[in-house]
Design brief:
about 575 residues; 2 domains; six-stranded mixed beta sheet; 23 strands; signal; YciQ-like_C
Length: about 575
């Protein structure tokens, strides 16, 4: 009976998905949100709500903001069609329509939970309300970065708007290398002329944005003794873009998602690609190491360090180790970034920094020049380098700008997607051949067997060295620096730092210990910051089979652990 009830629920939900959205329309046309962040990290927010108020019994609208965790909501005001509302010190939800007309107020349930309220005032088809308020501050200062992680459109907003746009501006144009993710809706998020723009194009559950700025960008008064990854790992649970800054995926946050997916495909015969969830299904096929629990998890071996490069083979061999050690990291993106640093280190390519000032809102014209083919490449690395050669061949001078590379990758996204799907298999094949893992058949029910992948003793040692080397780089400033006789070894370390996704942080630590590294190393901070644009272009293009955005797209699931949220509507 329980399974029958569940199947009925799945069938009903499946029908809801295919009913036209207009069948549920409540006349909530849109929310447009503009966020202006000052140097102190304070967010000055303006929201525009357009709602058809002709056919409801409500007397007021409200926006509920929860999960503030010490952030303050200040200076709230409302206007409609250019007419300013008057404040009410004590907001009473039981007052009638006329008593609330052209008035606004707030209800503070606690320091963590507030309603911003205003009277509907007119029964018009297109009431356009303008809300203004501050979040003080909206930027969180972390140990390694400054972060914005806020839910601007609450998950409990009823009704949901047909669409929304969130535009985030800073006191200076936001750098194109700023990492960005969005959660809770079908749509995209991009950097447009120095502003982050998140825009819905389909279903909406919430509108949550996660941005990573270089540490010290803002003089925020709110700090936490955490790293960006502490938030990012939690946010990516249930999200669908762990290999890059995103491809929009229609997933669900609850445990019924796999069954719901099967029901949709079975009942309606709809292909997976129609919902942009192919990437999520592929992600579920990542090879799991069956005996991984025999090794203390990453957090429990945080004190274990290994002060040498852990592996002398091809970087791609380690992909299976990386995805099991750090399952919520952007491992494919990191691998591509590591390849770029490796090619620079070997002299195979040059990164040519654009020295010209093109104005605040113009892209710099950094270029990559190919000198020769790298030696001893692995299968995946060789294929990726071939894309770089292809892009160079389309340029008259052979120099590859970021935009030229992006254009080439988008034309070839299908073959790149295939490559991204092969990386697990290639890594497994190489680890098997070198004795780091083995396949063991285990008996299952009804006489069946299942082949599982186990780390060998040699593989467990590699796993511990791999994690230990990341711990070593994370804690580099506190080690015995006399162990380093030649600072050029730091260039090799930087390649692994990229593989771990910590290249910029590691570079800062190396320069703090060896100030001369800033002048004599292969890399500089500008290069690290901007070379990631090329690697991100590669991974983003590989995910472009659905809802692709130039800067990254939204995941319908995930997004846990941030600030803000709540709901609102009418009452």
């Amino acid at each position: 009976m329980k399974n029958l009830h569940k199947l009925g629920k799945i069938f009903f939900l499946s029908l809801l998905i295919f009913l036209p959205k207009t069948a549920f329309a409540d006349g909530f046309d849109h929310i447009n949100i503009d966020v202006d962040i000052d140097k102190n990290g304070i967010g000055n927010i303006r929201e525009e709500w357009q709602i058809d108020e002709r056919d409801n019994d409500f007397t007021e609208r409200y926006k509920n903001i929860q999960n503030l965790k010490g952030l303050k909501v200040e200076d709230f005001s409302v206007s409609m069609d250019g007419k300013n509302f008057s404040p009410k010190d004590q907001w009473d939800i039981d007052e009638n329509f006329d008593q609330k007309a052209y008035k606004y107020g707030r209800i503070d349930y606690s320091d963590d939970d507030v309603d911003l309220c205003w009277g509907i005032s007119e029964r018009n088809e297109n009431n356009t309300y303008e809300l203004k308020y501050k979040i003080n501050p909206i930027i969180i200062g972390l140990n390694d970065s400054d972060m914005l992680f806020f839910e601007f459109v609450g998950a409990y907003l009823d009704p949901e708007p047909d669409n929304f746009t969130i535009k985030i501006n800073s006191y200076k144009p936001i750098d194109e290398a700023t990492k960005m993710w969005a959660f809770g809706y079908e749509g995209d998020i991009n950097n447009k002329n120095g502003s982050i723009v998140a825009k819905s194009t389909g279903d909406i559950n919430k509108g949550r944005v996660l941005l990573k700025f270089p540490k010290g960008t803002f003089k925020t008064s709110y700090t936490e003794d955490k790293s960006f990854d502490d938030y990012k790992d939690l946010a990516f649970e249930g999200a669908s873009f762990e290999d890059s800054e995103g491809t929009a995926q229609l997933t669900d946050d609850d445990s019924d998602f796999p069954a719901l997916l099967v029901a949709i495909v079975t009942i309606f015969g709809v292909g997976l690609g129609a919902f942009g969830i192919k990437k999520a299904v592929d992600a579920a096929n990542t090879y799991k190491l069956a005996n991984i629990k025999e090794i203390p998890d990453v957090k429990n071996i945080k004190q274990h360090t290994y002060d040498q490069i852990p592996y002398d083979g091809n970087l791609e061999d380690l992909y299976l180790i990386a995805t099991n050690a750090y399952p919520n990291k952007t491992n494919f993106d990191n691998l591509i970034n590591a390849f770029f640093l490796k090619w620079i280190n070997e002299g195979a390519i040059d990164f040519i920094e654009d020295k010209k000032d093109h104005g605040l809102f113009k892209k710099s014209l950094d270029q990559i020049k190919i000198n020769h083919k790298p030696a001893n490449m692995g299968e995946i690395e060789e294929d990726l380098f071939a894309y770089l050669l292809g892009a160079a061949n389309e340029r008259s001078n052979g120099y590859i700008t970021e935009s030229a590379f992006e254009k080439y990758m988008r034309k070839n996204h299908k073959s790149l997607e295939n490559l991204a799907q092969r990386i697990d298999k290639v890594s497994l094949k190489n680890l098997l051949s070198k004795g780091y893992v083995e396949k063991i058949s285990k008996p299952k029910m009804r006489g069946r067997t299942k082949e599982e992948i186990y780390l060998t003793t040699k593989g467990m040692d590699l796993y511990k060295k791999f994690v230990g080397f990341k711990n070593y780089l994370d804690d580099y400033e506190s080690i015995d620096t006399r162990k380093i006789n030649d600072v050029s070894i730091l260039d090799k370390y930087m390649i692994y730092a990229a593989l771990f996704g910590i290249s910029e942080e590691a570079y800062d630590r190396f320069v703090n210990v060896y100030p001369d590294y800033e002048y004599y190393g292969f890399y500089n901070y500008y290069m690290l910051h901007h070379i990631s644009n090329y690697s991100n272009t590669t991974s983003t293009a590989g995910n472009s089979s659905s809802f692709t955005g130039a800067g990254g797209s939204a995941s319908f699931g995930g997004g846990a652990g941030g600030f803000g949220g709540g709901g609102g509507g009418g009452r």
